[in-house]
Amino acid sequence: MTYLSYQSTSFALIMNKPSLRNWLIDKPSASPESLIVRCLRERGVLSASQITRITGLARSTVSTALNGLRKSGMVIESSAHHDGARGIGRPAATLTLNPAAGTCVGIHLGLDEMRCVVADVSHSVITEQTIPMGLDYQPQQAAQLARSAIAQCYEENGLPMAGLLGVGVSVSGPVSREGVVQRASIVPTWAGVNIRDVFGPVLEQPIFADNESNCSAIAELMWGAAVGQDDFVLFKIDLGVGGAIVQHGRLVTGIAGGAGEFGHISIDPGGDLCRCGNRGCLELYASFARPLEQISRIVRRPVTMDEVIMMAEQGDVGALRMIEDTAEFAGRGLGLISSVINPPLIIIGGRMALAGDILLAPLIASYERHTLIKSRDIAPALRTRIIVGKHTENDALLGAVGLVLRHNSRLQ
Amino acid sequence: MTYLSYQSTSFALIMNKPSLRNWLIDKPSASPESLIVRCLRERGVLSASQITRITGLARSTVSTALNGLRKSGMVIESSAHHDGARGIGRPAATLTLNPAAGTCVGIHLGLDEMRCVVADVSHSVITEQTIPMGLDYQPQQAAQLARSAIAQCYEENGLPMAGLLGVGVSVSGPVSREGVVQRASIVPTWAGVNIRDVFGPVLEQPIFADNESNCSAIAELMWGAAVGQDDFVLFKIDLGVGGAIVQHGRLVTGIAGGAGEFGHISIDPGGDLCRCGNRGCLELYASFARPLEQISRIVRRPVTMDEVIMMAEQGDVGALRMIEDTAEFAGRGLGLISSVINPPLIIIGGRMALAGDILLAPLIASYERHTLIKSRDIAPALRTRIIVGKHTENDALLGAVGLVLRHNSRLQ
Fold it and tell me: Where is the HTH arsR-type domain (chains A, B) (predicted)?
């Protein structure tokens, strides 16, 4: 429904509206103006009638509040048309927050690099930057480099720092509600680190943080395959296996931030040792790390996931077999997840999702074989749908922006 | 916090209050009286200050409404003291719905018998009846026999049928939100049957229905080990393995009623065929059906779960080994469930839970070995607690009553 576009225009006119920060971050109130602003912040672009429906306010109340918000320059008419506004007749005017009214930053802490993106409140990406870090980089160093990178981005694009509403951080490991990174063995140097304590004092901004896969789910929810879906499971197939659960439009975190850790479901307690310290984790079978090794061995050079997908599309039997075998295990894992929560929608993410039907067809067949409730036994409305995601490369980074826009996972 | 007691006194004075049925079932309103009545219906016994806290109403509003409810005879002082009311000084007066104000019926559809219980709105069980049915009994026959049994119970106890608020039905299989029994192979004769269509016209009452394990979870939530807990997982170890998930005080059902079907998580796709049609389901390893066969073979006579627990308590090595092996698989299954939803509390139910620590100690050790987030790595507040349930024998039946009292799973 909403869009996220990359734009390169420089931002000369930034209105510095301290009231926006007040409304969105510091003391959100229940006034119609505040509700409308929060609604547009979460969804990006909406028509007045959609705002009326979502907020539950009276049509006249919305109309009056929108007039005020338009006059103050907080809300503007959008050039991009909302998907839902397409139809017969004149398209309804769509509204968005004034891009000049505020910005937010998303940071993704990768294995050996840090990525950083600046977006405005109308959900447009202004600029993006990658900072190479080397393996096992230290939290303090990351915070300092993030500060410099943000300052540089804002200066180069003529953005005032005062318009920054908050910083979202995506972490490759489970994060507790208080912002502490759990499980030492997955991201060694960040184990036990409190994201707020590290980034808060250095960046001097409200800090939001969540697990990488949870951020990916936020990106799919706000701009991707899950727009309009309140309940779904994300299953990422990449060099690892990640996951997230969204229920009633909110992430399920679990008591210690361990919900959705699908890659570490142990399917063979006697199997190989996993980086998490357990044995036979699903990630060892349903990620694409081992298949890449196998294919590289056969073709006698290192291959990437993109190449393998291309080989499969051209009919290479080995590439097809590796994708099918991965799909078999992913389907088995998802069958098992379905016996636990039986979700209405499963979105396959990660870079292997780019294989499309080559991956999806055997995955769905495997899922059907291993799950309790078979599609053929039940009405279509009760079936779990399995589709591929929309964001596969930069989903965690976009999701970190989404944490700020949705005011999700704020660390107090 | 609340109690469920069995009482045998005959019920001579039943006030027929059509307004209670109105408030509770037909058109619940947001009036203070309606909120208080629903609150007492869900919790059983509460003090005025607890009612104030739970409803969020002003103290004076609660006081005025309670006066009116007392005068009309709808609410009375309770002789049983609420657990939470114990303390120094004079115990606070506790209130309950007048037992004479209404009754409800719970029915459990067992494999070869139907059990039926009548309880009043103060959460006291008035009478219970078991109807032997033989294997593969027909839905229509069950509805007719339930009607006779209910009529008999009400007549014998001098209860007016007009006071009956609704009938809750517990089914040994997944039930969709519309009340259709899913998965043919688990309860053959009930597959595809709509519980409302079968019981509604014959009983002429509002019908509530849910899966057996979901009913068990309701019983633990209302009267058992989960009182005051809004989020937990129930894992039942009996002749089968069942389960349920409660989040924010509500059951997670899944799109087709398949959430919490822990017994049918496939842990070995090449394993033995399960009654559900899949292979290597957790139920084959973590239920106590096979251990009973093994022990019966050794002692050359059929043994029951109670006997095996007694043998284990007396140090019988074979009985201990069978319980430990079951615990190992149950812990493995729960470790896996925790990698999906990471719940704060796991309650072990089913008749094997009566083994207490003999089962729990190896189960917790196995859980720790197989789950991603180890207790020793995290603060005590973030750890998943594993305890045994309070109701193990009649939990599904009590839960069926709970469906009506909580107005849960009503079939429209």
Answer: 35-76
